[in-house]
Design goal:
Layout: H1 3-14, H2 20-31, H3 36-43, H4 47-68, H5 70-93, H6 98-115
Helix pairs in contact: 1-2, 1-4, 2-4, 3-4, 5-6
Length: 116
Amino acid sequence: MEKNIEISLLFDFYKPLLTNSQQQAVELYYNDDLSLAEIAQQIGISRQGVRDLVKRSENQLFKYESELGLFKRFKVTEDALEKICVKADDILRNTDDVHIEATAKEIIALAEGLKE
């Protein structure tokens, strides 16, 4: 996975655990795609200060994921739900039994609801 995408995803999970200045720096750098110089001008610190803040924030996000594993668990669950939908769809397409068909549709609806 590309680092920028990974940081953005980790940020979605662990944003509340970062300081306000870390949140702002990561948001501007990764999500708004501003340069270090643009961020420095916007928040009133040096370009090097922004770089250090972004790097510390990245390290913190990776540390949280290493210790808590929320994104990994989310991805595993999302993948499992997708497999459940595929299997239920296979059942749906290969049965003439009305009760099995209704159950397969219900499984798909439940799995899709959990993915949202």
